[in-house]
Predict the 3D structure of the following.
Amino acid sequence: MLSLWLNVVASGILMGLVYGLVALGLTIIFGVMRVVNFAHGEMVVFGVYIGYWSVRMWEVPIIAAAALAAAVMFVFGYFLEKLIVKRFVNSPHHYQFIVFIGLSLLFSGILLVAFGPDPRPTASQLSFRTVSIGILTLDLARLQAAGVAGLLIVMLGAYLKYSSFGRSLRAAANNRLGGLIVGLIIPRIYAITFGIGAACAGVAGALISPLFDAQPYLAMDFTLLAFVTVIVGGLGSFGGALLGGLTIGVAEAVAALMFSPSMKTALPYALLIIILIFRPRGFFGVREV
Amino acid sequence: MSEKFNKAAETKRWIAGAIVFVILGLVGALSNSYIVSLMTIVLLFTFMGQSWNLMLGIGGQLSIGHALFVGLGAYSVGVLYLKYGISPWIGLLAGMVIAGSVGAVLAWLSFRFEVHGIYFALLTIAAAEFARIMFSGWEFVGAMQGLFFPAPTGEVDISMLRGGARFYYFVALALAAIGIAGTELISRSYLGYVWRAMRDDDEAARALGVRTFRHKILVISISAASAAAGGGILALVQGAIFPDSIMGMGISVDVLIGPVVGGLGTAFGPLVGSLAAIPLNHLMGALGDSLGIPGLNNIAYGVILISVVWFLPDGIWPAVVRGYAAIKGSLFARPLKLRKAEE
């Protein structure tokens, strides 16, 4: 019994790291630009398809597929910001929200046109291999995904903290006007920020492609999951996204074990409602919105 | 939004509205069954869009989870009628009371703890999704298999709100008329001024003695109750209720697309927007089906939403009004200028 629980919690933590990476993308975009990327789930699904096709066509390891997804989605996010998002950065929140709902519909439509509504099972060899560590038995795919996600989170955190671009990005997040005064090129920072956010989503998508069947309708679930995660952690907080991801990952796994699989999907929302009511800004939310 | 209200212009507006509805009535009486069923949906979403519009366009509170209220209305009608044989009129009323109270509780909880803006919008999505998942697992209301109304016999029974497609068209038309007239009346009343003040500047409104906390709860529960009424009729029109289609994000988006496209905060905006967006959506859907390409309707909706906010941020209807005023202005301005030149 104990080993079952430990296994469930461990696999929840592994999923939680991936959720953390997805949420990190959302939270960086919000923290710097103050926009809520409602199309985040679609970007994850783009990543899933990139992972699916590159593994399928070139039989590359999933890590190479993740690197490809990162590159493609960074460029995608960069130009999306340059072309569309930047026009709405200063509009009222509800206009931004509506634009992003529009983007999300547009992308999900494009996914449907390109790949059709049917799920594509990605059962590769990787999906079935397991690793035993003591009493824990873990999916290799899950372990790999979590490992890469965890590494990326740490690297991104270090980059934002110590590099010169990271400092200017945080400065822009902290005080846009101040940043402009000291000579930061805010439009460039915004575009790169959006690129980084999209890349986080894309990488996470590629990493989980062996675990989920690729299909366009996953997008909404991922968007909502990312929202729940960042709000639990606190919109705009780096550590919060990670903590939120782990909380949701473990809570989901435990709920699936204790109640029923349908409770697994309901629990994050219940958690979100409770947290919004008692700690409206999440565990480490930024004060001002 | 600083319209000047004067008596003559107001009478003109009411007459124009009445003419529009007489034309819509003729459309319902004369056109074929495809147009009637499409227009029924347009009118229902006009009404539900109007309820959403009341909340954001006048009350200033963004909801992306209106499907929750629509679904509660639909399930109230469905469960009472199908399980207990109670008239949908009572079901509608029950749905409005339930949705209104849920909206009020949600608003109370969130504004009590200063959850507002984006966080409130996200809370509405979370509540709607939570409810959808709960209803999907609830056997009593049919779970994923849904609830089905018996096929219409074509006989009109007003006490049970049952009838054919044309009957529901006129029900939807009546609802849309109530929605538009109601918004017009509310926005000219004390409440309308208070809500707009609250929308534009919460602190200033409070400083003037408006109890914004209560008014937010009020506007949200009125909006929720009217969305539920629309949802109840939508369930009867569609003849079936599934949790994913009546409480899913799709409904929340369909509800907000009319007012956003047509013009936020205006009385006619949701009608204009629904008339523009919903037939296009159906057309693209049908085109996609016949070509074997799903997703065209999503692309159409996406492009419409982005381009409206981009090019016409206050919607189609205000742009039409401005255009009309400009034409009228130039027509009347010319004789005036000529006269001046003569002098």
Chain A touches chain B through 48 residues (CB under 8 Å). The first strand of chain A starts at residue 130 and ends at 133. The first helix of chain A runs from residue 2 to 33.
